[in-house]
Amino acid sequence: MKKTILIAGSGFAGFWAAIAAMRAVSLAGKADEISVIMVSPAPNVTIRPRLYEAVLENMAPDISAQLAVTGVQYVAGRVEGIDTDNKRVTARLNDGQEMALAYDRFVLAAGSYGAIPPVSGFAEHSFNVDTLEGAQCLETHLLDLKHKPHTAARNTVVVVGGGLTGLESATEMPQRLRAILGNEDVRVVIVDSAAEVGAGMGAEASAVIQQALQECGVEPRASVRVTAVDAGSVTLSDGEQIAADTVILAAGMRASPLTEQIPGERDNSGRVLGDAYLHAPAAPGVFVTGDTVKVPTDNAGNYNVMSCQHAMSLGRVAGYNAAAELTGLPLHPYSQPKYVTCLDLGTWGALFTEGWERKVLVTGAEGKKIKQEINTLWIYPPKADRDALFAIANPDFVIVP
Ligand SMILES: Cc1cc2nc3c(=O)[nH]c(=O)nc-3n(C[C@H](O)[C@H](O)[C@H](O)COP(=O)(O)OP(=O)(O)OC[C@H]3O[C@@H](n4cnc5c(N)ncnc54)[C@H](O)[C@@H]3O)c2cc1C
After folding, report:
1. In terms of DSSP bridges, do strands 293-294 and 286-288 run parallel, antiparallel, or are they unpaired?
2. Residue 47 beta carbon below 6 angstroms from any ligand 1 atom
3. Does ligand 1 have an atom closer than 6 angstroms to the CB of 18?
4. For residue 262, is it within any domain?
5. Are 225 and 330 found together in one domain?
6. In this predicted structure, what is the pLDDT of residue 51?
7. Does residue 177 line the site of ligand 1, with CB under 6 A?
């Protein structure tokens, strides 16, 4: 009977895990003996890093052709149950039926979701740019603002969370609001509990971020938390109340709830602590990858962050290793010592940094060119050419040289 490598998720990690697994199976000449099956709600990679943008075009490219040309089978549904003792999962298919799937190797690549802090009103009154549906809902709301009476609340957006997603959303917003409302007085506020908005990027980058916020006309509110949100206002922990019809929540990500079904240790974000080969150490036959795993990236004490930069490499290594174990190929340890960030900062441009200390390398309009290249080329699935896909799916392939 054919053996099965089952992959949950078709994001950056799941896509590359599937192609890398199929590549290794083909390399070993075992395509007749091993199936690679991907389960996900839709055969798309959602380009989550771009969901803060105003124009939501081509944000979920179809990968059916890439899966077909490499021989990956696709099942439309969501994994609901993982039985690691008996090596089987249950999936809810898109037509509502339940399906049981046995596996020889399972790769969990179900990603992450935007966490909603336990603050009154967030769940009911905030928007997000975490999912395509969330971003579309925000866009519809923003377009509707022009039909509402001119008030301070209508013209104000509060972004909660000064991490990368919050900063990109906030700095994009003044021009986006003006494009919708005309040349009105628009107000964008970004709130963070750290001593300075953007402090998490380190002192050098943070100084650049302050300048960009100022030039974009975004008001930082540091050292405060949001204590309540309602349909027209946001209340801060220092007592300030900001009239705002639009609140965007970007307060951090949590790993897929499926991680709770994998035995073993997890970090504060719910990520499973993986070993160097991306095994879930306490669940034989299970690999964890992308935003569902925490693992060292180097020997200097650094760990992957929830990013597509890491997810693409983690996916390749997990998929390859799942196939290597079934085919007798040598296992490939995960290593990704190079780390860069490219932060879009609206009309000011973008900030490109290198290294974990985030050394500032490129800023402004030059940085924006790099960001556009990353956002329109680097992170998209390549076209459906088997050899080209297999070349990039090599776990030795370096994304950021
Ligand atoms: C606004 C925003 C900006 C970002 N900017 C950057 C950036 O500039 N640079 C960067 O590197 N990263 C950025 N990120 C982070 C990056 O998008 C994620 O880290 C990356 O998407 C993780 O890839 P993944 O494949 O692990 O998970 P995901 O991309 O989340 O994919 C998960 C997949 O699993 C599927 N799935 C979920 N549940 C199930 C289930 N139960 N069964 C089966 N399938 C399931 C989903 O449908 C999806 O296909 C940003 C994220 C956001 C939201």
Report:
1. unpaired
2. no
3. no
4. yes
5. no
6. 97
7. no
Q: Which pLDDT score is estimated for 400?
A: 67
Q: Same structural domain for residues 244 and 261?
A: no
Render pLDDT for 174-219 as a digit per residue (tens, 0 to 9): 999 999 999 779 999 999 999 999 998 999 999 999 999 999 999 9
Ligand 1 centroid to residue 109 C-alpha, Å: 9
Domain-ending residue, one of 281, 305, 338: 338
Number of domains in the chain: 2
Note the pLDDT tens digit of each residue in 26-79: 999 999 999 999 999 999 999 999 999 999 999 999 999 999 999 999 999 999
Pocket flag, ligand 1, residue 389 (CB < 6 Å): no
Residues 160 and 195 placed together within one structural domain of the fold: yes
Q: Which residues pair with 296 in a beta bridge?
A: 303
Q: Could you tell me which of 291, 293, 267 has the C-alpha nearest to residue 280?
A: 293
Ligand 1 centroid – CA 91 distance (Å):
20
Q: Are 62 and 32 in contact (CB under 8 A)?
A: no
Q: Which residues of the chain have pLDDT under 70?
A: 400-401
Whether the CB of 349 sits within 6 Å of ligand 1: no
Q: Retrieve residue 176's tokens.
A: 């986006």
The last residue of a domain, from among 212, 230, 249: 249
Sorted by sequence, the CB contacts under 8 Å of residue 57 that are 6+ apart come out as: none
Which ligand 1 atom is nearest residue 253's CA? Answer: 53
Ligand 1 pocket mutation pick from 116, 167, 308 by most atoms within 8 angstroms of CB: 308
Instruction: Report whether residue 312 contacts ligand 1, using a CB cutoff of 6 Å.
Output: no
CATH code assigned at 184: 3.50.50.60
- Helices 132-144 & 164-181 angle (0-180, nearest 10): 30
DSSP 8-class letter at 303: B
Domain that holds residue 142: 122-249
